[in-house]
Amino acid sequence: MEKLKGSSTVLITGSSGFIGYHLSNKLIKLNYKVIGLDNMNNYYELNLKKTRLNNLIKSNNFIFENIDLKNMSDVKNLFEKYDFDVVVNLAAQAGVRYSIENPYAYLDSNLTGFLNILEACRAYPVKHLLYASSSSVYGGNKVAPFSTNHNVDHPVSLYAATKKSNELMAHTYSHLYDIPTTGLRFFTVYGPWGRPDMAYFSFTKDIIEGNPIKVFNHGKMERDFTYIDDIVEGIVKLIPRAPEKNPDWDESKDELGSSFAPYRVYNIGNNQPVQLMKFINVLEEKIGKEANKQYMEMQPGDVMRTYADVSELERDIDFKPSTSIEDGLGKFVDWYKEYYNVKL
């Protein structure tokens, strides 16, 4: 892959999280020096985060810092301590449904935390800031596939609103302070070492243990499930591609995911939506056990469909997600059985 000029030190926030763990592992193998930041909160099973971290710290190319992004003095000290080339901000309070129950958690992590990262990148300039956005910014949009040229002003959860806010904040700092920023609208990422609060993880646990699973909207939703290795490949290819200013940018004819500022937003998804019932059927097949399904109405904050238009990513970095739902869920179930020592 194309190397960054000068130092190759990357800060990954949320490094003990699902995507952060896999990205850290990949960059370590590519001989980057990775500084991992995480506050090790207990939003989900802490032992899983600790095991991810223990795997990472075995490498001489990885240094861990236990820091909460909402503490600006700690963030400032971190940027003083290391000379970062690139920052990949994956730390966030995740979860659409959790944002309905605990809205204030999202202000601290997703808004204050991200502002502190932007301020640090302003005070200690970096070559590129990449950050996690989400497919949830498309809200109630009906036109599919979802394109970065579509309006995203109608979120249906506070989580989605904070992710849209991150994109607006990043654009402001790109414009005012020439910080090259790239936003990544992730589409339902899944795979080994995943998040226990995600449906595929909890479904697997419940099917194995013989507990009923809740199938919302009677299984008539579609998700653009994207395997973790495809996501990581996309991020790694984007790291050396810092956006540049385009003073001739014109919103009437140019892509809305770009700007006159050094700013870019991409969809990063599989480009192949799968109906929830098909997803469950594949999971049953890989586990070798039928689920006890409880059919439920649509949950507040949920959307009917996610479907990523990734044509810009294909054009710019030759991004081609290649993992089928059958292969991806098979790998996840194999990992789950090994990690939790499941005997069926």
General description of the model:
This protein has helices spanning 18-29, 46-56, 72-81, 96-101, 103-123, 158-177, 199-209, 228-238, 276-287, 311-317, 325-339, and strands at residues 9-13, 33-38, 62-66, 86-89, 128-134, 181-186, 189-190, 212-216, 222-223, 226-227, 263-268, 274-275, 292-296. By secondary structure, the chain is an alpha/beta fold. It has one domain (9-339): 3-Layer(aba) Sandwich (Rossmann fold), CATH 3.40.50.
Topology:
Layout: E1 9-13, H1 18-29, E2 33-38, H2 46-56, E3 62-66, H3 72-81, E4 86-89, H4 96-101, H5 103-123, E5 128-134, H6 158-177, E6 181-186, E7 189-190, H7 199-209, E8 212-216, E9 222-223, E10 226-227, H8 228-238, E11 263-268, E12 274-275, H9 276-287, E13 292-296, H10 311-317, H11 325-339
Parallel strand pairs: 1-2, 1-4, 2-3, 4-5, 5-6, 6-11, 7-10, 8-13
Antiparallel strand pairs: 9-12
